[in-house]
From TrEMBL:
GO terms for biological process: cilium movement. One of its GO terms (cellular component) is dynein axonemal particle. InterPro entries: Dynein_IC, WD40/YVTN_repeat-like_dom_sf, WD40_repeat_dom_sf, WD40_rpt. The lineage of its organism: Eukaryota, Metazoa, Chordata, Craniata, Vertebrata. Residues 302-321 have a biased composition (Acidic residues). Residues 35-52 have a biased composition (Low complexity). This is Dynein axonemal intermediate chain 4. WD repeats lie at residues 574-616, 617-651. GO terms for molecular function: dynein heavy chain binding; dynein light chain binding. It comes from Tinamus guttatus (White-throated tinamou). It holds the Pfam family WD40. It comes from the Eukaryota. It is found in: Cytoplasm, Cytoskeleton, Flagellum axoneme; Dynein axonemal particle. The keyword Phosphoprotein does not apply.
Length: 705
């Protein structure tokens, strides 16, 4: 429709046209092909039949015909306008708006698949069938619409109580004849199977030759049955092999290994939950006890056998008294009486051990700086005659029965330590002088870096190494981490990572002549001729506040105070030990005091401003391998001898240790370490076990002395 169609029906002729259409005479005069209602400014077009609609759409110029018809309507409207009276004009007229049928000018149905597809013909046939069904559905009696209402079943919860599952052990007596018969059956079965196969092959050949005779016919039936059994056995064997192949693929899949890993963690948490709760200082969850109610009185399983409980408690107390010993001098120095005093003790929680570590000696332990649940343990022998391959295991508290990472080394591991800046890096020192760095995040067994190709590598065992944070600049704001190691070749070395693992010497430990021995003649000079100018280094420890200073213990029994900025001469030398110094430890609270232990059976307390010992502690005639200060008390430290571990409290006694726990027979303690953020102690021994003990009734001293 053109815009000119609307222009002819504006103004005063609009209402007259409406009234004209509503009268009966006008409706008969306007019964042409076009009819319009102007009440809502809408134009409707009706046709007498679908044929006229198709003819009008097919005409090339329908606009002209439309305009012509409109002019005819206007002329007729003007003619009829003169016949209307005033009463007719004032009469109220009802106007009804109706919707006409929709005229589809363009219809393009949506297509899901291409017409060139292979299944296009089948889809078109389905569409035609569906259209026919939809057309025939209207008014057809076969299609009836019905509604149904269904009731949902009410859910029910049922509880069933069953009896306790009782297990029984059953055995049977077997005579020698039964054993003989069962053993012979194992040998007879494979031979009988082989004979059966041969018979079936021969019978199949005979059946092909003698197929016409009656006697051969019966034999053929028997042979066919045997051949079918062979086919069935072959099929079963093939299915069994396919199942085995499929099972191997499942066992080697990563998803299966991950599920096993999670299941293992869950089982470990269930098994070690009480002990882990004690370690983390959390409340222990106790399992509910089965009770049996008889009237108003309830009796528990524990109350049924009070004698057994008392007997078990007495046995535990006797075992603790055997393992833990408290010196009488310690009890006398206590303010409380012996009746009121609760003796401290060491309670074993669990041990880190597996088949890989059995028979190996624990040489060193180190906690991860970021993850307090991750413990690295090195395994190696200290004696030259007992050297074998080394091992490094990373244990987690979530699985005390198997290590998370295992690194195999060609030589025995003597020391290790985690990095502070990069907690995933683990530095390892070995008996042959090699320093290696491993990445614990990777499951690869090989080291990231090692000093095997370095020209300045150690030529003696690396007895200790440690990551140290030092000042890079003069201001002290820019701090960097370096790796320090001490070796039996008399060198204290600083390692750095560039293209490989390079090093530079911080100090070369020179041999010193004793003060008592003075050269008064040529014979004495010849007797003091040194095989090596350098003294083997055994241990070191940096100052907790000023990392520019450190202490170094030697095989001569001397302790040297050194500086990182001056490597030509010692600052001070402390003389007190008569054997190799195995460990030096600064006090974390009183930073001027430090401890040292030696092979001369003694532990000495030093002050850095005094070259003479303050206290010399010796409780047994055994080598002291390791010492460590308590992280919660300024007075408490732990020392490890070959046969026992000693807990000292200098505020109570300087003569005897506070607690002594003896090792098992043929077992030697080698190293000790305090746990982080908990009152627990870790002890390594010569059998490859790292035992975790809880320190009970050991109060931390808050004194500032």
């Amino acid at each position: 429709l053109a815009a000119s169609d609307y222009s002819a029906v504006t103004g005063s002729g609009f209402l007259s046209s409406i009234s004209m259409q509503q009268t009966s005479g006008v409706n008969s005069s306007l019964a042409g092909p076009f009819s319009r209602s102007y009440g809502s400014s809408s134009i409707s077009k009706s046709y007498a039949s679908t044929d006229s609609l198709a003819d009008d759409i097919a005409e090339p110029s329908p606009r002209r015909d439309t305009s012509a018809d409109i002019t005819d309507v206007q002329v007729r409207r003007e003619e009829v306008k003169e016949q209307l009276t005033n009463e007719e004009l004032d009469r109220r007229v009802d106007i009804y708006l109706t919707e006409t049928e929709t005229i589809w000018i363009f219809d393009m149905p949506s297509v899901v698949m291409s017409t060139e597809a292979e299944d296009a013909g089948k889809v078109l046939e389905r569409n035609k069938i569906y259209v026919d069904v939809c057309k025939n559905r209207v008014g057809n009696e076969r299609f009836v619409e019905r509604m149904m209402q269904t009731l949902n079943g009410a859910p029910k919860s049922k509880e069933v109580q069953c009896d306790k599952i009782v297990t029984e052990d059953k055995g049977i007596m077997v005579t020698s004849w039964d054993l003989y018969d069962s053993f012979n059956e194992l040998e007879v079965e494979p031979t009988s199977k082989a004979e059966g196969r041969r018979v079936t092959i021969v019978s199949s050949n005979i059946s092909l030759i003698s197929g016409q005779h009656d006697q051969s016919a019966s034999s053929v039936c028997d042979r066919d049955s045997t051949s079918s059994s062979v086919v069935e056995s072959a099929l079963l064997a093939k299915i069994h092999e396919e199942k085995e192949d499929h099972s191997e693929a499942i066992l080697k899949s990563e998803k299966f290994h991950q599920d096993l890993f999670f299941m293992e963690r869950i089982l470990m948490e269930n098994v070690f939950q009480p002990k882990l709760a004690v370690y983390r200082q959390l409340p222990v969850l106790t399992e509910p006890v089965a009770t049996s109610n008889t009237g108003d009185r309830a009796t528990t399983m524990e109350e049924a056998d009070p004698e057994k409980e008392e007997h078990e408690q007495e046995e535990q107390e006797e075992e603790e008294q055997k393992d833990v010993f408290i010196a009488p001098s310690v009890l006398s120095n206590l303010n409380k009486g012996p009746e009121e005093f609760v003796p401290p003790s060491l309670e074993l929680l669990w041990s880190y051990a597996c088949d890989l570590t059995n028979g190996r000696s624990v040489s060193s332990m180190a906690w991860n700086k970021l993850n307090p649940d991750l413990l690295a343990v090195g395994y190696g022998e200290f004696d030259f005659k007992e050297q074998k391959n080394g091992l490094v295991c990373c244990w987690s508290l979530k699985n005390p029965m198997w290590p998370e990472r295992v690194f195999h080394c060609e030589h025995g591991v003597t020391t290790l330590d985690f990095s502070m800046v990069s907690p995933n890096l683990l530095a390892v020192g070995m008996y042959n002088g090699i320093v290696a760095i491993y990445n614990v995040q990777s499951r690869n067994d090989t080291a990231l870096l090692d000093s095997s190709e370095s020209l300045d590598k150690h030529i003696g065992p690396v007895w200790q190494l440690k990551w140290v944070e030092q000042d890079r600049g003069t201001t002290g704001d820019d701090k960097g981490e370096i790796l320090i190691s001490i070796s039996a070749d008399g060198r204290i070395t600083k390692w750095f990572i560039r293209k490989g693992l390079g090093c530079s010497d911080l100090m070369k430990i020179k041999r010193t002549v004793s003060e008592k021995k003075k050269t008064t003649g040529e014979k004495e000079k010849k007797s003091e001729a040194l095989i090596s100018r350098q003294a083997p280094g055994m241990c070191f420890d940096f100052h907790p506040k000023d990392t520019n200073f450190y202490l170094a213990g030697t095989e001569e029994g001397l302790i040297h105070k050194c500086s990182c900025s001056y490597n030509e001469q010692f600052i001070e030398t402390y003389r007190g030990h008569k054997g190799p110094v195995y460990k030096i430890a600064w006090n974390p609270f009183s930073t001027d005091m430090f401890l040292s232990c030696s092979a001369d059976w003694s532990i000495i307390l030093w002050h850095q401003q005094s070259q003479k010992p303050i206290l010399t502690l010796s409780s047994t005639t055994a080598v002291v391998h390791d010492i460590v200060w308590s992280p919660k008390s300024v007075f408490i430290f732990v020392a490890v001898n070959e046969s026992r571990v000693e807990i000292w409290d200098l505020s109570i006694s300087t003569l005897d240790p506070l607690v002594i726990r003896f090792a098992a027979p043929k077992v030697k303690f080698t190293t000790v370490l305090f746990a982080k953020n908990t009152d627990c102690l870790l002890l390594g021994d010569s059998k490859g076990q790292v035992s975790v003990f809880e320190l009970q009734n050991l109060g931390a001293s808050h004194s500032n002395k």
